[in-house]
Every structure is written in C-alpha cells, then in structure tokens.
Amino acid sequence: MNTVALIVAAGKGERAGGTLPKQFALIAGRPMLAWSYAAFAKNPRIERVIVAIAEDQQRLTAEHMPGVATITGGTTRRASVASGLAAMGDAERVLIHDAARPFITDAVIDRLIDALDNADGAVPVLPIVDTLVSTDGTSVSREGLHRVQTPQAFRVDSIRRAHAEWRGAEPTDDAQMVRALGGSVALVQGDPMLEKVTLPGDFAAAEARIGWETR
Ligand code: CTP
Ligand code: MG
C-alpha cells in the first residue's frame, strides 16, 4: 500500500530564537530538517517524502537542503498540512511529521503503519511521569493520560475529510480532527527520541539524544 511522509517545516521558529528558523539550525552539524528527511527517505515502507516550507524559505532550503523538492506551506501548521495533503495525489497512507522533532526511528514508523490496518489514524504517545495540578490548585490524576508526539499516521481519505470539515480553532495536532469526525485513532508506543525542539535549550538536549537506543 502506497505510504508517503509529509514533513511540515513552514514555521518561523520564534520561540527557539536564533538567526535561522529552527528547522534550518544545525544539530550535530546537520540542519534539523535534514535528520527527519533522511530517516523517512531511507525507510523502505515510505515511498515519497513531501516537505512543506514557507514561501520565503526557498533560498534557505536550497542552501541547507540541496536537491530536496518542496511545496509551499501556509500561515498556520494546519494550512501547511493541508497543502501537503493536496500534493500527495492518490497516496493511501500518510505520516505527518513536525520538522521540529529531528529524530525518527524505524520502529516507530513500523508501529504507526501497522496500526493503520485497524484504525483511521495512529499516534505515538509517552506516559506522563510528573504529578499534575490545575491552576486553581486542584490535583489532576495522570491516570489514562499521555503525551502525544509526531509522526502521526493516517489513512489519506480520513485525514483529508477531517481537514476539510474542521471548523474549530487551530488544532494542536492532526489526530484531534479525525476524532472529531468519529474516526478511530490508535495509540502506539512513542519514543523519547521524538521529543520536540521548541525553546533555545532544546537544541543541546537534542544533540545529547543522538546515539540513544531506547527501543
Ligand atoms: N509549521 C508549519 N507551518 C506553519 C507553522 C508551523 O509547517 N505555519 C511547522 C513547524 O515548522 C514545525 C511544526 O509545524 O515543524 C510544529 O510547530 P512549532 O513547533 O510551533 O514550530 P514553529 O511554529 O516554527 O515555532 P514557533 O511557534 O515557536 O514560532
Ligand atoms: Mg508554532
């Protein structure tokens, strides 16, 4: 079955600071975007990798990711995903991924694609280890709660319909749009390697993760 990867890399990386948008900043000598691109490109179950960048990032992309074809994303993450969904033709499955999560493992890709045999979508999750409390001081049980990562895998027809029919505020991930239409989203085991780079200190943490074998 035809499976493609979509990396959304059209953000500004404002919280990460720095001179370049974070997806082009170097992690161990390699642009952040190049790490996830390479992982998808070498995975035998992924047939094509689509990269969405901002219109004004074409020169940066040519410089830092030579030879990589791109499409133009949008002004929100959801719009960037929508551009990618429109560009994947008759693909049957898609793994949607944030360029801000540089390290993807083949094991996670396998778990996600396999889960699509029985679900419209699948997301990698990790358990919450901290104690939770709400602002008003009420203790919140962490029982049954998870932290959600990307890549998120979907049957393309399901995620296209979910995007087309979404009327809510900007969602924080794609799976919630599929659930809103009653679609099933499986939870598979995530990986600490998939942690996101958001703030300036996260770059050093990402470099420290290289070489981890956590699976
Ligand atoms: N993204 C995108 N198009 C947008 C906004 C975000 O493709 N219009 C992508 C980012 O490039 C990133 C992913 O969505 O890979 C997750 O978003 P986030 O971590 O918020 O990245 P930025 O929006 O770039 O960062 P910030 O919010 O700090 O500006
Ligand atoms: Mg953002």
Automatic annotation (TrEMBL):
Keyword Lyase belongs to the record: yes
Region described as 2-C-methyl-D-erythritol 4-phosphate cytidylyltransferase: 1-215
Top-level taxonomic group: Bacteria
Site positions for Transition state stabilizer: R15, K22
The protein's annotated pathway: Isoprenoid biosynthesis; isopentenyl diphosphate biosynthesis via DXP pathway; isopentenyl diphosphate from 1-deoxy-D-xylulose 5-phosphate: step 4/6; Isoprenoid biosynthesis; isopentenyl diphosphate biosynthesis via DXP pathway; isopentenyl diphosphate from 1-deoxy-D-xylulose 5-phosphate: step 2/6
Any GO BP annotation: terpenoid biosynthetic process
Annotated positions for site Positions MEP for the nucleophilic attack: R142, K196
Keyword Transcription: no
Cofactor: a divalent metal cation
Entry GO MF terms: 2-C-methyl-D-erythritol 2,4-cyclodiphosphate synthase activity; 2-C-methyl-D-erythritol 4-phosphate cytidylyltransferase activity; metal ion binding
Keywords (A to Z) from UniProt: Isoprene biosynthesis, Lyase, Metal-binding, Multifunctional enzyme, Nucleotidyltransferase, Transferase
EC number: 2.7.7.60, 4.6.1.12
Family, per entry: In the N-terminal section; belongs to the IspD/TarI cytidylyltransferase family. IspD subfamily.
Purpose of the protein: Bifunctional enzyme that catalyzes the formation of 4-diphosphocytidyl-2-C-methyl-D-erythritol from CTP and 2-C-methyl-D-erythritol 4-phosphate (MEP) (IspD), and catalyzes the conversion of 4-diphosphocytidyl-2-C-methyl-D-erythritol 2-phosphate (CDP-ME2P) to 2-C-methyl-D-erythritol 2,4-cyclodiphosphate (ME-CPP) with a corresponding release of cytidine 5-monophosphate (CMP) (IspF).
Name this protein carries in UniProt: Bifunctional enzyme IspD/IspF
Species, as recorded: Sphingomonas jeddahensis
Portion of the full sequence shown: 1 to 215 of 374
